[in-house]
Design a protein that fits this description.
about 150 residues, mainly beta, Jelly Rolls, 5-stranded antiparallel β-sheet, 3-stranded antiparallel β-sheet, 11 strands
Length: about 150
Amino acid sequence: MDHRSGPDLLAVARRHAAAPLPIRFDPIDRWYARLATHPDHEAWLLTWLPGQGTDLHDHGGSSGAFLIVSGALTEEIVSDGRLRPRQLRAGTGRRFGVRHVHQVTNHGDQPAVSVHVYRPALRRMTRYRLTDGLLQVAEVARAGVAW
């Protein structure tokens, strides 16, 4: 399904972020919880303590959006064989298509909270390594096994 079909996923993330959120933090790793599942999308809450982040990954053919609810996160995408960072602060959101590869990290000194929406629901995610400017598959994680 094309990322432009159906509801605007960033608007969906904003609606979820406006509701009371079951925020928790884990001192070891990012904490996450599924907020909602719909026939055409799903929504997740993620919390990030300083230093917590993801590996370089895609979303297994799902398009999506994420909104920073509080704090700040740095998204890094691969461009010209290098990671290019972009800091996203509270209230800022980002839409992405089915081929988007990124890593997200809390490089700040305050906790961060974000809401993520995917269409269709996540079934797998591929993790990558960036070696000599090229993406190499490191692992394919599957829903129900890895999360």
